[in-house]
Write a structure and sequence with these properties.
The structure holds 2 protein chains of 2 kinds.
Chain A: E1 6-11, E2 16-21, H1 24-30, H2 33-44, E3 58-62, E4 76-81, E5 88-93, H3 97-103, E6 108-112, E7 119-124, E8 127-132, H4 141-152, E9 158-161, H5 164-167, E10 175-177, E11 181-183, H6 188-194, E12 197-203, H7 214-230, H8 232-241, H9 246-252, E13 289-293, E14 303-306, E15 325-326, H10 330-336, H11 345-358, H12 362-378, H13 383-386, H14 396-408, H15 412-416, H16 420-426, E16 435-436, E17 439-440, H17 450-458, H18 471-474, H19 490-505, H20 519-529, H21 536-556, H22 568-572, H23 587-598, H24 608-614
Parallel strand pairs in A: 1-6, 7-12
Antiparallel strand pairs in A: 1-2, 3-4, 3-6, 4-5, 7-8, 9-10, 9-12, 10-11, 13-14, 14-15, 16-17
Helix pairs in contact in A: 1-2, 2-21, 7-20, 10-12, 11-14, 12-16, 17-19, 17-23, 19-21, 19-23
Chain B: E1 2-7, E2 23-27, H1 34-40, E3 50-53, E4 56-57, E5 73-77
Parallel strand pairs in B: 1-5
Antiparallel strand pairs in B: 1-2, 3-4, 3-5
The chains are: A alpha+beta, B mainly beta.
Chain lengths: 618, 83
């Protein structure tokens, strides 16, 4: 369905669940999900508030195409102020719960206040109630999921929950839905736990409705599914190899950040690559990858379902990890593998399972361990800090230990739960944190892919690949090939990717469709589903409006152009090999042009002209 | 001259016997082009989307000219993406 035009407001302090109309004037300006929820945040939350206080709110929001037959129309996002970055957080997830929420008749849920005791939300169509979660508190996501399904005796109920890491205050805790899909970045799970909210259980049976022109919508979605099926990337590459196919690509390119971004190529890349996931292992002849999997309504199905070798040290006495679960995505494999120097596929898969089991962001976790490993190498950290563990680059056992103690909030795991910026400051080496706005980098070195440096520096949620994936152009040639080693033209490229992505993220669709689709393919689907006229130009304008609104929230939270920068390592230490050898990231060659293209001041502030053009709130 | 030849993802099936981790060292004529190299191993040119020589992308127009030298690394992918 398109918008249900209903918002569920859950006041955790008061214990109330009250429905209200969706603000349709804002829906016309911000579409849904990421954009619309950010508009609510700007209206209702003081950007300077403590992210872990009851003043912060947390919104689970769908887009107008969530729950429809549009391909990949199963997405939802969690929007709040981030405890990791202090910026606006928006973490997007797939799976099935987003569509379930829409089928229950709601566009979004706004959680406000803080419950005096642990609770969970049980939502069945229009019936919403907060129930005690005392017995669930202290349990992992996987344990809580099983307990909740038993309590409610409904196997089709969809669950999003936080694990022990969030309860223990790990600043990059995720919200896990459907066992292994994650609203992963920026600590949205930490915010959820800070409100004493353990889980959200949803069952929706109202079905699809409220489509403006059902016949045209069916025709349009069918046509666009055909486009995805016939595209070599979305029709063949992603289902077969998943995102992990990039491990060897980026390594060959000499842009694979290695051992806390000290190097740009990893000698063990192949061992943890998408190709390696398909190779039979010696012990049982089975491959790491069991099958691919799709989220709700997805016709790409890039997801990985994997198993760990039962004889591997990480699980040899832990049969609970012998079954299938969500397997490695590229960013996770990079952070926990390449960035820590670990090329043990089973170990990285095990640690990935733990990230899902207890809900932590594998990118920030892996990059934080990498920073700790560099401090261990330099003697800033010792076995006295780690309780005897040799936290050395390349040690699979140290990586597994680090995940176990971080997920449980035990011992040194509490330090690792701070994220690398706070960890490195605590131990006197702030320069070793590879972050922007306190959020860790993903898997592309901006010395070898220059546009990504600008994308990271200006991302509204801190370093992130999903806010402006210029890798598509600079490496993969989508929609057209640009040279990854030059800075010319990258300001415009970054802005275009940022704006288009904001629109896609607000529609209820997966950004991976954009390997085959542009806004030209998306606009007709929205136009057939949603009241009003939805052209490519309008979607582009909405994307730019959302970007500016997010920027405005961050500026009001206290961020300035000084936060639009990169770690000194990337600006002063040249790449040591490959095509980018001798190069640093030329951020200062791109940033002024970017501000100009955005219409911002030279200090990165929004102007009155921009506010007026996009009708932004004062 | 000898080069290292790498075929990834679905192109891996075109690698000759003896390849390890999607790579093999091969002897080729000094005047071989990238398209000529692909033809030698029956790699469909239309599937060769991402072609890197020592990590640097080679566009379609450059794939017909001799441009390799001893010790080069050639790596080829079909259309792939991730994120």
């Amino acid at each position: 369905m398109a918008w249900t035009k209903k918002v569920l407001r859950v006041n955790l302090t008061e214990g109330t669940c009250i429905g209200e109309p969706l603000n349709m004037e804002w829906a016309d300006q911000y579409l849904g999900q990421r954009g619309l929820a950010t508009r609510y945040m700007c209206e209702e939350v003081d950007p300077t508030c403590d992210a872990l206080s009851s003043e912060n709110k947390m919104i689970m929001a769908t887009g107008p195409l969530t729950g429809t037959m549009a391909s990949t129309g199963g997405r939802y996002s969690v929007i709040c102020k981030s405890p990791l970055t202090g910026a606006i957080a928006c973490s997007n997830s797939g799976g099935f719960i987003g569509a379930e929420l829409k089928n229950a008749g709601w566009d979004m849920i706004i959680f406000e206040g803080k419950s005096p005791d642990p609770v969970y939300l049980h939502l069945e169509n229009e019936k919403a109630e907060l129930l005690p979660a005392g017995e669930l508190w202290g349990k992992s996501v996987w344990e809580a999921d099983e307990m909740l399904h038993k309590i409610h005796q409904d196997p089709q109920m969809r669950i999003a929950a936080v694990g022990r890491a969030a309860e223990e205050g790990c600043l990059y805790s995720a919200i896990i839905n459907d066992l292994h899909r994650a609203a992963g970045r920026s600590g949205v799970g930490t915010v959820m736990a800070s409100k004493n909210l353990k889980a959200v259980c949803v069952r929706g049976t109202r079905g699809v409705g409220n489509i403006k022109d059902p016949a045209r919508f069916m025709k349009s979605t069918a046509e666009q599914k055909q486009v995805l099926a016939e595209n070599a990337v979305t029709g063949q590459g992603l289902p077969t190899y998943g995102t992990q196919v990039l491990m060897n690509v980026i390594n060959e390119l000499g842009a694979l950040p290695t051992r806390n971004m000290q190097e740009v190529k990893f000698e063990g890349a192949h061992n943890i690559s998408g190709e390696a996931m398909l190779e039979p292992r010696a012990s049982d002849g089975k491959a790491n990858l069991t099958t691919n999997a799709g989220c709700f309504a997805c016709t790409i199905a890039c997801g990985r379902i994997s198993t760990i070798d039962q004889t591997h040290f990480s699980v040899e006495n832990k049969p609970q990890y012998w079954g299938n679960s969500g397997g490695l995505e590229y960013e996770a494999a990079w952070a926990m593998g390449t960035d820590t120097g670990v090329d043990d596929l089973d170990a990285v898969t095990y640690v990935n399972f733990l990230c899902n089991e207890d809900g932590i962001d594998p990118i920030t976790f892996g990059a934080t361990v990498a920073a700790a490993m560099e401090m261990f190498k330099d003697g800033d950290l010792t076995t006295e800090h780690t309780g005897g563990v040799e936290l050395e680059f390349g040690s699979a056992k140290a990586l597994a230990w680090a995940a176990e103690v971080t997920c449980r909030g035990e011992g040194f795991g509490r330090d690792l739960g701070l994220g690398s910026r706070r960890l490195c400051e605590k131990y006197g080496r702030p320069e070793l944190s590879m972050t922007v706005k306190s959020q860790e980098f993903p898997a592309y070195d901006p010395r070898g892919i220059q546009g990504m440096g600008l994308a990271y520096a200006t991302s509204n949620r801190g370093a992130c690949h999903l806010r402006g994936y210029t890798v598509a152009s600079e490496v993969l040639g989508i929609p057209e090939k640009t040279d990854p080693l030059v800075t010319e033209g990258k300001a415009g490229l970054v802005k275009a990717f940022q704006d288009a992505t904001a629109a896609v993220d607000s529609a209820g669709l997966c950004v991976f469709t954009t390997f085959a689709w542009s806004l030209e393919n998306i606009a007709p689907q929205i136009d057939a589903a949603c009241e009003g006229d939805w052209s490519v130009d309008k979607l582009a304008e909405i994307g730019e409006r959302i970007w500016n609104l997010e920027r405005d929230f961050n500026n009001k939270a206290g961020m300035t152009s000084a936060d639009d920068t990169l770690p000194q390592r990337l600006l002063t230490e040249p790449a040591n090999t490959g095509p980018a050898e001798g190069k640093v990231c030329g951020l200062d060659e791109m940033l002024p042009e970017y501000y100009e293209l955005r219409g911002w001041t030279t200090e990165g502030e929004l102007t009155d002209d921009v506010r007026g053009k996009f009708n932004l709130p004062v | 001259m000898q080069i290292q030849f790498k075929l990834y993802a679905s192109l891996g099936e075109y690698l000759p016997a003896g390849a390890f981790q999607n790579a093999i060292d091969i002897d080729v004529d000094t005047n071989v082009s990238l398209n000529g190299l692909m033809d030698l191993y029956s790699v469909p040119r239309e599937l060769a989307h991402l072609v890197l020589v020592n990590g640097v992308f080679q566009c379609d127009a450059d794939r017909n000219q001799p441009m390799l030298k001893d010790g080069d690394v050639v790596a080829i992918w079909p259309p792939v993406a991730g994120g």
